[in-house]
Amino acid sequence: MAADPRFFGPPRPQSLGAIAALLGVVLPEGADGAMVFTGTATLRAATADQISFIESRRYLPALRDTAAGAVFCLPEQAALAPPHCVALAMAAPQLAFARVAALFHPVPPPRPGIHPTAVIDPTAEIGAECEIGPYAVVGEGARIGDGSLLGAHAAIGPWCVFGRGCRILTHASASHTLAGDGVVLHPGARVGQEGFGLVFTAEGRFETAPQLGRVLLGDRVEVGANACIDRGGQQDTVIGAGSRIDNLVQVAHNVTMGKGCVIVGQAGIAGSTTLGDYVTLAGQVGVAGHLNLGSKVRVGAQAGVMSDVPAGQDVLGSPAWPARDTLRAFARLRQLGQPTAKKA
Amino acid sequence: MAADPRFFGPPRPQSLGAIAALLGVVLPEGADGAMVFTGTATLRAATADQISFIESRRYLPALRDTAAGAVFCLPEQAALAPPHCVALAMAAPQLAFARVAALFHPVPPPRPGIHPTAVIDPTAEIGAECEIGPYAVVGEGARIGDGSLLGAHAAIGPWCVFGRGCRILTHASASHTLAGDGVVLHPGARVGQEGFGLVFTAEGRFETAPQLGRVLLGDRVEVGANACIDRGGQQDTVIGAGSRIDNLVQVAHNVTMGKGCVIVGQAGIAGSTTLGDYVTLAGQVGVAGHLNLGSKVRVGAQAGVMSDVPAGQDVLGSPAWPARDTLRAFARLRQLGQPTAKKA
Amino acid sequence: MAADPRFFGPPRPQSLGAIAALLGVVLPEGADGAMVFTGTATLRAATADQISFIESRRYLPALRDTAAGAVFCLPEQAALAPPHCVALAMAAPQLAFARVAALFHPVPPPRPGIHPTAVIDPTAEIGAECEIGPYAVVGEGARIGDGSLLGAHAAIGPWCVFGRGCRILTHASASHTLAGDGVVLHPGARVGQEGFGLVFTAEGRFETAPQLGRVLLGDRVEVGANACIDRGGQQDTVIGAGSRIDNLVQVAHNVTMGKGCVIVGQAGIAGSTTLGDYVTLAGQVGVAGHLNLGSKVRVGAQAGVMSDVPAGQDVLGSPAWPARDTLRAFARLRQLGQPTAKKA
Question: Which InterPro entries did the record assign (chains A, B, C) (predicted)?
Answer without folding.
Answer: Hexapep_transf_CS, LpxD, Trimer_LpxA-like_sf, UDP_GlcNAc_AcTrfase_non-rep
